Amino acid sequence: MSKILITGSDGMLGTDLIKHCHDLGYETLALNRKKLDITDRASTKDLIESYKPTFVIHTAALTNVDFCEQNDQVAFQVNGCGTENIAYYSNKVNATVVYISSCGLFGDEIRAYSEHDNVQLKTKYAKSKYMGEQKAIQWCDRYFVVRPGWLFGGNINHKKNFVYNRYLESLNNSSISSAVDKFGCPTYTKHLSTKITDLLNTDYYGTYHITNQGFCSRYDYVKTIIDNMGIKTEVKQVDSKYFIRNAPVPDSEILNNNNLSSKSLGLLPSWESALEEYIRLLKSQI
Ligand SMILES: NC(=O)c1ccc[n+]([C@@H]2O[C@H](COP(=O)([O-])OP(=O)(O)OC[C@H]3O[C@@H](n4cnc5c(N)ncnc54)[C@H](OP(=O)(O)O)[C@@H]3O)[C@@H](O)[C@H]2O)c1
């Protein structure tokens, strides 16, 4: 039976991915940071060599973009060197590696970027995630590099649950603000998980942009969350300069799922229907 090792298992994607892999009947080894710190090369070697996974899905990362901007050595250590540890030892046991990368690897021109576009690494976070991609490609005979859209999903205990946090913010304020000049593809972790396991059943190795279909501004995203939640709080349209940030995040994180299409692997549903589905689930938990 195929065995899947998943890093970052307490994270937003990791949580939904493990559930999905269990549902499909895979044997899984879920590794949170306590069980495996990916920067610890010796522990990474021991865990991978003793479990001998068929697949390794590597979701663990430092994901706070502003923190990474000010602590780039830590970002490179975790997102770059940590990925190298995972990639190197996974390949030694002949595992196929899925490396979860980023949608923030491109620029400010408002358009959809495909896998064939050259990257423009504006932030330290982007540089560290791209370093992770290069390590996966360098060390793995069989790899999938997956660049997802703006992720939502997980549960209300996840500190970075974007949807739940907007809900709380809207309950505590008469109005909330959101940027009209930043664009991306909101993507449900549960849907992304299905596409990741679809890839495992192929030998179409390479790089994939995987998002729910369509794109929107941050403002559209937040407004749709608040409307779906059935809350009357006003959402104000602001320029992104309104939010003081350390990292110069690109204006466009819109991804075109070119490689999924060209290999007839099927596309995910629209971000609006995905968000509706997730908010129905969230409402049943709060
Ligand atoms: N969120 C997004 O919008 C988005 C968009 C595109 C791509 N991605 C990528 O998708 C992946 C999953 O994102 P997510 O939103 O699920 O992130 P998340 O909730 O922040 O989960 C990441 C997990 O990695 C763990 N981690 C951090 N440093 C580690 C280390 N040294 N060793 C082992 N584990 C470590 C974290 O543990 P602690 O909580 O203990 O730090 C956390 O549980 C990441 O690779 C991210 O770069 C995310």
TrEMBL record:
InterPro entries: dTDP_dehydrorham_reduct, NAD(P)-bd_dom_sf, RmlD-like-bd. GO terms for cellular component: cytosol. It is an enzyme of class 1 (oxidoreductase). SUPFAM superfamilies: NAD(P)-binding Rossmann-fold domains. Residues 3-281 form the RmlD-like substrate binding domain. Its EC number is 1.1.1.133. One of its GO terms (biological process) is dTDP-rhamnose biosynthetic process. GO terms for molecular function: dTDP-4-dehydrorhamnose reductase activity. It comes from the Bacteria. Pfam families: RmlD_sub_bind. Keywords: NADP, Oxidoreductase. Pathway: Carbohydrate biosynthesis; dTDP-L-rhamnose biosynthesis. Belongs to the dTDP-4-dehydrorhamnose reductase family. Catalyzes the reduction of dTDP-6-deoxy-L-lyxo-4-hexulose to yield dTDP-L-rhamnose. This is dTDP-4-dehydrorhamnose reductase. It comes from Cohnella phaseoli.
